[in-house]
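Students often ask why we bother encoding 3D structure as a string. The short answer is that it lets us treat folding as translation between two languages. Here is a chain of 480 residues written in the first language.
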Amino acid sequence: MTTARYAVMAPDVSPSEKVLEVYSPYDRRLLAQVETVDEPGIEQVLRTAYQTFENRDQWLSGEQRLGILKRMAELMTRDADRLTGIAVREGGKPLTDSRVEMARAIDGIHLCAQCIRTSHGEEIPMGINAASQHRLAVTRHEPIGVALAFSAFNHPINLIVHQIGPAIAAGCPVIVKPANDTPLSCYELVKLFREAGLPPAWCQVISTTSHDVSQALVSDDRVAFFSFIGSADVGWMLRSKLAPGARCALEHGGIAPVVLAPDADLEGAIPLLAKGGFYHAGQVCISVQRVYAPAGLAAQVAEGLARAGEAMSVGDPALDSTGIGPLIREREIERVHRWVSQAVSEGAQLICGGQRIGESCYAPTVLLDPPANSEVSCEEVFGPVICVYSYKDMDEAIDSANAVPFAFQAAVFTRDIDTAMHAYRRLNASAVMVNDHTAFRVDWMPFSGLRHSGMGVGGIPGTFADMQIEKMLVIRSDHL
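And here it is in the second language, the structure alphabet:
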């Protein structure tokens, strides 16, 4: 069978000699080859995007952008099964979960269109003192400039929609570099955007020959907005390379904590926590990782999570019956196993899992009371591992939950409103879920990592706002 080949999606750019090979994380089958660009190619990409933005007479009107997004939603609906299949093969998220991602992505396109319809400026009060007499001041929104997006592997359809969709809605030319592990979904989506009527210069997709080339792209002063989804180390490093004045949004990982109050409904909580921790093999930035339970209930909670995890089918992500698919890379399996083994050697009790399944998967794993300084307690596992900790006092549990440099989404389970509000006020998080897992998200809500977990506010409306400036008009007239 001939291997698919994906060309650079940027006008007048010649590919380098280097080709990116994309493999299935489940069976290591070669899926496609993707052309890459080097520094001369990057220069052409930037020139195209910047000239597109600078030619204001050729900006896409609101009507044009709405029409493109409407057609895009129709095309994605038409090709939903095909796109889902590509995402499953290249990313390894189980088919049932990838279908949900596909539906979210289509809805995300509709949300982008809604942003255009509801975006507006405001009137600034004038005529209220001597200096402001005979004046009218209003604002309107304009695109910020060239947007650059580096994406992650774990949601190859929806993350791209969250980065490209708002740029199109805001009127920004956008350059996208998808994750090297999962670029195919991005290339396919941009093909559909072009079919929907988006001119090629308004969205260019590239894969680069090296990290140095990518960094040169980020540091260019023609980039006005940088969107990054990935690891904290890389994100903060790239932020330091941005040109003066460039805005950025960074979405990194977390070590999501859950506090179970003594009155928590464990029967209802455990299935939610198991799903939130083992979903996509734990490769989610807000995956349930640390669960704090009263000392008398912690073992029961750990055993309940173990039973729930062991009931999930692990294996081929293309099967409807699979609940947990592969980790994205071989070295990630080795790292997760090393961290789990280290925690056990340091005193954690292994309740379930702790071993590979086949060549590419890792068993859903539950650890009871790993040390606070163990890597599974203070670093993002990004694997199917849930840690349960015993506590005697709920405030001590909250202090432990807060004792890491990451803060993203957190959760508390309780039947008491005052307990819920107590935890909400004290947990370090940008969002606190009550009686739900930490991985809950809908695409119109604010979504933001704090501290090491990122900066800026994601979610489609938040990204749309970040990609615009508010430009004021002041009119002086004696008739005002």
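Translate back mentally: The first strand starts at residue 4 and ends at 6. Keep this in mind for the problem set.
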